[in-house]
Amino acid sequence: MSSFAQFNFDPRIVSAIERMGYKEPTPIQEKAIPVVMAGGDVMGAAQTGTGKTAGYGLPLIARVLPKANTSMSPARHPVRALILTPTRELADQVSVNLEQYASDTPLRVGVVYGGVDIRPQSDMLRRGVEILTATPGRLLDHIEQRATNLSQVEVVVLDEADRMLDMGFLPDISRILKLLPENRQNLMFSATFSPEITRLAKNFLRPNPTVVEVARQNQTAETVTQEVYQVTDREKTDVLIDILKTRGEDQGPMKQVIVFVNAKITCRRLARTLERVGINADAIHGDKTQEERQAALEGFKTGAIHVLVATDVAARGLDIKELPCVVNYDVPFSAEDYVHRIGRTGRAGSHGLAIMLATREDGRLVEAIEKLTKQTFHQVPLRPLSRQARAEMRRGSERGDRSDRERVDTPEDEKLARERARAYVPPSQRHRDPIFDMPYREKSAANAKPEELRVFERENTRRPRQVAALLGGLRLPPALR
Ligand code: AMP
Q1: Phi/psi at 307 (nearest 5 deg)?
Q2: What is d(CA 211, CA 190) in angstroms, rounded to the nearest whole number?
């Protein structure tokens, strides 16, 4: 059995690992930690839930630890390790982990992301912080305000790089990379691979990075049972309710499940419908404030909320341990999202269940998932329970909760179904979230910009196709040309 002892971590890191209760390294940690400790670049193929944060976080702390100090001077605490994440939830989660791993060291750990007051973050940056986790847009805000600079960064991590590209962060990432010293260590993690990700890796990483994989690319974990049910659009909500009420322990209600939907409007309405039939549900989507999202997440973690209805963007990177089941109420528009969604269950060897409801119109999307994950679903037609079966279920229910007795196929629900159909978001608009998804854009001319940023913008306006232009614009190492 492998152990953390093989890495010869500083005792102050060892004590943190013990406190976290980690007994042995996960496969990604076993592979990534020695490479990162030795200063190598890493291309990691790993989803959230594999232990990837400690996989890069622990050795990253070990790398910068020799320069740790207790001086009060901000100049003695420059940013030495930078972790970029696509969402603020993931940023928060990563930073909480890093804080725990570094808590016995004098290293300062901080996090910055948009959507909240910038001033406390600026104060923190001005006091100095060695390990900084950030979403790209807010980090650029701070750089423009000169609250921090990145000239002494030694290690950079792009976490969930695929999602950063999906969300249009490539220009922001390029701007940030230009502000970093050339001589640095680069780590990149992505759950899925596409030609764009491979190109980004070639430009971002030094030649011959170590590729660290824990599952085969774009494969779903073997520990997840996948079920796909054919439903009609009209019956979808009733089928979901039946599943939520009968697929838990002893054919009882499910206690911890994320239901994925494609549109914010579906998210809101579905959570409300579930509440109406006595299911403790909450919605998590991009229109919710940070506080509302955190509250929903906390409720879910403590068990007060049984069902979290979520859009992909909002649910991205949420660290929820041992989730027994996820339901795809909507078939995701992108097959990669399917891999991400079901990656939240069956973690770390525990068994998981992934249920998907597919209508006839979803046929092409389901095929795309089958192609990507190299499997063929056995699709089973499923109807909602009959009135009689529901009545029997109610009689059998110990509590006989009043709200349980409501029918769900009321005219109001039909209206809901129609509205849901209208709320369909075409693929080109997916992940458009006004607060969280849009890449950083400067609105006011009040702040003078560093020269590097202005240069970038000029380049950018000349070239309308941002992805190709930026990738083409970066210098490729000879070995990768
Ligand atoms: P991550 O994939 O980094 O989001 O980690 C998922 C969860 O696994 C987090 O709650 C970690 O605290 C936990 N974890 C990470 N490494 C280990 C380990 N070696 N043993 C047990 N749990 C771990």
Answers
A1: -125, 125
A2: 11
**Pairwise CA distance, residues 481 & 461, whole Å:** 26
Does the pTM of the predicted model rise above 0.70?
A: no
CA distance 17 to 475: 39
In the DSSP assignment, the letter for residue 182 is: S
Atom 21 of ligand 1, nearest CA residue: 22
Ligand 1 centre and the CA of 288: distance in Å?
Answer: 27
Q: Is the CB of 26 under 6 A from ligand 1?
A: yes
The span from the CA of 26 to the CA of 37, in Å, is: 16
The pLDDT value given to residue 218: 53
End-to-end Cα distance, the chain: 41
Nearest to 166 by CA among 363, 337, 18: 337
The Å distance, Cα 168 to ligand 1 centre, comes to: 28
Q: Where are the domains of the chain?
A: 4-213, 224-398
- As a whole number of angstroms, the distance between CA 343 and CA 340 comes to 5
Domain spanning 224-398: which superfamily?
P-loop containing nucleotide triphosphate hydrolases (3.40.50.300)
How deeply is 290 buried, as exposed, middle or buried, from its count of CB atoms within 10 A (0-12, 13-18, 19+)? middle
Is it the case that residue 1 has pLDDT exceeding 60? no
Superfamily of domain 4-213: P-loop containing nucleotide triphosphate hydrolases (3.40.50.300)
Q: Is the CB of 53 under 6 A from ligand 1?
A: yes
Residues forming a β-bridge with 24: none
Q: Count of CB atoms within 10 A of residue 476's CB?
A: 13
Residue minimizing CA distance to atom 9 of ligand 1: 51
Mutate to test the pocket of ligand 1, among 7, 17, 26 (most ligand atoms within 8 A of CB): 26
* pLDDT tens sequence across 42-70: 999 887 778 899 999 999 999 999 999 99
Identical fold between 4-213 and 224-398: yes
Average the pLDDT over 211-238 and give the result: 80
